Amino acid sequence: MYADCPTATAEVYIEATPERVWGMVSDIFLMPELSSELQEVAWLDGEAEGPAVGRRFTGRSAHPAMGEWDTVSTVTECDEPRRFAWAVGDPAHPGATWRFTVAPDGAGTRLEQWYQMGPARSGLNIAIDAMPDKEAKIVFVRLREHETAMRHNLQQIKEKAERNERRG
Fold first, then answer.
1. What would you measure as the largest C-alpha separation in the chain, in angstroms?
2. What is the pTM of this model?
3. What is the mean pLDDT of each run of 10 residues along the chain (168 residues)?
C-alpha cells in the first residue's frame, strides 16, 4: 500500500574507484541521459557548482501512462564519496526519496540505488484514487518499473565508470 512507503533497490559492483562513481551519481545532469522517464534537470539555487545539502533542482519527467510532469527536489544527503540523496517535493514530507550509496568493495565499488514511495501524495495517487480497489497492484507495478529502471541506470553507470577507469 502507498501509505506503507514501500521501497525498491538495486545494486551493482563496479570496477572503478568510489570517487569516480561518486562523481557520476552526484551529477544530476547525467541522470536524464540514463533514464527513460527523467527528461531534463536544472539547478534552482543560483550559480553554486555541484551538489550540496539543501540545493534544489527541477526535474521534467514523462511516462506513457502518466503523461508529463515537473518536480522540485532537494538534496538531503551529500556525503562525498558515500551517499547522495534527494527528496521530491517537501523534504520534510516528500512524495518520493531517492538515494545512491557508494561503498568501497575490494578493488572496486559497490553502488546501490534506493527509492522510497511517499509519504506525501504523488502523481501515482491519481491512479490509486481512480481505482482504489487496485491500489496494491498499482503500487506493485510502479515499484517493479522503478527496479527495472534502477538496474538499467546502474548498468549504464557501471559501463561509463569502467570505461573511464580504463582510460585513467
1. 54
2. 0.91
3. 93 96 93 90 80 92 84 95 96 96 96 95 87 93 93 95 73
